[in-house]
Design goal:
Largest sheet: 7 strands, antiparallel
Oligomer: single chain
Number of helices: 4
Number of strands: 14
Radius of gyration: 18 Å
Strand content: 25-35%
Distance between the termini: 28 Å
Structural class: alpha/beta
Helix content: 10-25%
């Protein structure tokens, strides 16, 4: 008898409001950097669950006029904020790592370009966790630069012996923990995925531009049950701000 598939497990969290400081910076590529944050507001039991690969926080950059971080009051007006994947958390050092795509068309991206040790930023959340299944027969992971932090968490946290097919999108290639197929853009993404083997107990995940991910999701749901497909839009072409993270149906 086939084992009952449990799917994605959702765990609510009590959201916290913090002002954190940059402790160190790592250059990942010409277009990406990892910024480690710490400070008295970062608790040692910060919620960080294995295979909670897409868990994220909202960032509140300093006010451009005053240079200070102004956290929004509960229930009050909200400043311009952005969602960022929780890349890593070091409980012993009380440091939180976030990976940034460096660009000028968003407040968090602009902040990350010049962020140095001591720089402050507001961090809200996470509001909850989504724990992905670890017991599927195999996995398909697809991401552009914005989805790479979550994809890399999957590669680090999935069982090493489980077959995993990886597709990355974007202008620059990155070295990952496992072999990946790199596509410079999404023009051949669906055709590439159509040529990959997927079985009834496979699990597919993807993150990237909303329109591209919608096409990918539509294709994957012709091959897998809906509960075995988790594909999200992380941003929308032509919109300067980040689009809301598009949930699965």
């Amino acid at each position: 008898m086939a084992k009952l598939f449990q799917g994605i497990r959702r765990e609510p969290r009590t959201p916290r409001r913090r002002v954190l400081r940059v402790s160190r910076v790592e250059e990942l590529s010409p277009t990406m950097r990892r910024i480690w944050l710490g400070g008295d507001d970062l608790e040692a039991d910060f919620p960080f669950s294995e295979l909670g690969a897409t868990d994220h926080v909202k960032l509140v950059p300093p006010d451009p006029g005053t240079g200070r971080v102004e956290l929004p009051p509960p229930g009050g007006p909200r400043p311009d904020m952005r969602d960022y994947t929780i890349r890593r958390f070091d409980a012993a050092a009380k440091e939180l790592a976030l990976d940034f795509v460096l660009h000028e068309h968003g407040p968090a991206g602009r902040w990350a370009i010049t962020a140095a040790p001591g720089a402050e930023i507001g961090v809200l959340g996470p509001r909850g966790s989504q724990i992905y299944p670890a017991d599927c027969s195999d996995y398909l992971l697809v991401a552009d630069e914005t989805g790479l932090p979550a994809l890399e968490r999957f590669l680090e946290e999935l069982p090493a012996a489980v077959p995993t097919q990886v597709i990355t999108l974007g202008a620059a290639q990155r070295t990952l923990h496992r072999e990946a197929t790199w596509l410079p853009d999404a023009s051949t993404l669906v055709a590439t995925v159509a040529g990959l083997p997927l079985g009834p107990e496979s699990f597919a995940w993807g993150a990237g531009e909303t329109g591209e991910m919608r096409e990918l999701r539509t294709h994957l749901r012709t091959r897998l049950p809906a509960e075995r497909v988790s594909v999200r839009g992380y941003w929308k072409q032509g919109h300067a701000g980040s689009a809301p993270r598009e949930e699965e149906d």
